[in-house]
Amino acid sequence: MPLGEEKNGACDRSIYVNNPHLDSMTDDILYHFNLGTSTHDLPAMFGDVKFVCVGGSPWRMKSFIEYIAKELGLSEPNADYPNICAGTDRYAMYKVGPVLSVSHGMGIPSISIMLHELIKLLYHARCTDVTVVRIGTSGGIGLKPGTVVVTKQSVDSVFQPRLEQIILGKPVVRSTELDGELAEELLQCSKDLAEFETVIGNTMCTLDFYEGQARLDGAFCSYSEEDKQSYLAEAYAAGVRNIEMESSVFAAMCKLSNLRAAVVCVALLHRLKGDQLTSSHDVLNSYQQRPQVLVGHYIKKKLNASKKS
Amino acid sequence: MPLGEEKNGACDRSIYVNNPHLDSMTDDILYHFNLGTSTHDLPAMFGDVKFVCVGGSPWRMKSFIEYIAKELGLSEPNADYPNICAGTDRYAMYKVGPVLSVSHGMGIPSISIMLHELIKLLYHARCTDVTVVRIGTSGGIGLKPGTVVVTKQSVDSVFQPRLEQIILGKPVVRSTELDGELAEELLQCSKDLAEFETVIGNTMCTLDFYEGQARLDGAFCSYSEEDKQSYLAEAYAAGVRNIEMESSVFAAMCKLSNLRAAVVCVALLHRLKGDQLTSSHDVLNSYQQRPQVLVGHYIKKKLNASKKS
């Protein structure tokens, strides 16, 4: 049920929810955000949102909102950005102007709870033309540490662009296609910036960080270094350039909701050369800022273009 | 490779890691805890740990350590319990005496990263005879809200006691058996306390909170109220009394590591009657304390018994 609105004679890109039951609910509690339709004026709080950035760590999402506020000239001296979900420790949420920044924890289940509630929030707030970008960290394959990967396709452990979800005990397969045009625009932003390397590649999404990603340093490991190398080489041959744990359900849910979506992750290490994150704290920190800088540049460019038009 | 030690003539129950590669590593960085074998003296910091309580929310795990410190007479006036993982926001960890309290976020992937690093931590610290309990929240089936469920078997979406993990692209099935004796001891603790109802039952573990648990209030829903009721009735008939998102991998990994393990979750609502958490904040909060109270009583009882013997 799209909430289509006519504005300037053109139909906006609307947020879809695909749930006929929502209409019969008198109010909707977004439990893990500690927000709700009867306790909060969601259109007033969020109606102007055009960009949503999501990432695993609450600290990183707070630092992103401070960064983007400065970039957009919306920061005030000594400004503090309160956590909109302060009543819960499940997720953290920050907003400045048209940009919302939300943490999602680690793994498919954690981001999927957040996205269900985010999509309903954007729907209740009657947002239109929203772009959502996941900014995160990942392990790279065949890339110099610090390289940023914009995801072409999110693939599963056998390198297929699909997500199998279980609904009422039965498997349902969903497409993990992302917006190709948006990925190219982000790549162009990296060229504009010329600060670090960015590539477009496939991203493998796993349910586990250790055995699921062929690491040799978990509590359990039943395979050899050779098995690991050959699995990661197969992944590389299938176009996989990095591995993380949220992109598949992010892509699938954004596609179902008509949200323009991209995944931008920095590769913290080269997995063919090792499994442990041995780089210094400062180096890892500087790598983690790259997706923020890239997406910050994109948002600024888009907002400037819309001012001019 | 068990680290068996002889003490008082009896062989302790040791922590297993099942990874031959660990021995050849000069140091081991527990990245998501911000701890490591070359930067921290893990035996000195954690060698005395006998009980580990894990739960989703960092706030709850901090409140648990404050509660257990009081219960065990280990709290000092104005004592603050510093977060041992203060350098990261992925997990929070607190310790008092022989009790460790660790948060794990939401979902199987999030708790599995934590458990890989926790098991390695206990192994590096040469801990023995460790009991691990997950204290959490859940949706109940056929139970009065506030009832505590001690898990008999953690089952999947078709009610089987197994976890399928993907390793090098291939499915591996692991048992989700928990310690039956420990479950009975916990049930007895609830009888000692006589403060709230506790049952032993099966726990369904899902990868999704909305569609994966047959909720009607997610952003997407392709099934009817009748479909939902009939799926949950099937679950009830298979012995399922509550639904949560971490127990299967928790059970599987503890079993592989020789850790005595239990899952103790309070049912916040009766899922046959609704999906939204409409109870007041105070009521939900008091429900969430019940697993803490139960496990606190168990730990006290065990420590008193070992003092006497």
TrEMBL record, chains A, B:
EC class name? transferase
State what this protein does. Catalyzes the reversible phosphorylytic cleavage of uridine to uracil and ribose-1-phosphate which can then be utilized as carbon and energy sources or in the rescue of pyrimidine bases for nucleotide synthesis. Shows broad substrate specificity and can also accept deoxyuridine and other analogous compounds.
Reaction(s) catalysed by this chain's protein: uridine + phosphate = alpha-D-ribose 1-phosphate + uracil
Q: Which CDD domains match?
A: UP_hUPP-like
Q: Cite the Nucleoside phosphorylase domain residue spans from the record.
A: 50-299
Q: Does the keyword Transferase apply?
A: yes
**Pfam families associated with the record:** PNP_UDP_1
Biological processes per GO annotation: nucleotide catabolic process; UMP salvage; uridine catabolic process
Q: Which residues bind substrate?
A: 213, 215
InterPro entries, A to Z: Nucleoside_phosphorylase_CS (IPR018016), Nucleoside_phosphorylase_d (IPR000845), Nucleoside_phosphorylase_sf (IPR035994), Uridine_phosphorylase_euk (IPR010059)
List, in alphabetical order, the Gene Ontology terms for molecular function in this entry.
Answer: uridine phosphorylase activity
Alphabetized, the UniProt keywords read: Glycosyltransferase, Transferase
**What protein name applies here?**
Uridine phosphorylase
List the source organism: Sinocyclocheilus anshuiensis
Q: Which Gene3D superfamilies match?
A: Nucleoside phosphorylase domain
The entry's phosphate-binding residues are: 90, 134-137
Look up the EC number in the record and give it.
2.4.2.3
User: What would be one Gene Ontology cellular-component term for the protein?
Assistant: cytosol
Belongs to which family?
A: Belongs to the PNP/UDP phosphorylase family.
Metabolic or biological pathway: Pyrimidine metabolism; UMP biosynthesis via salvage pathway; uracil from uridine (phosphorylase route): step 1/1
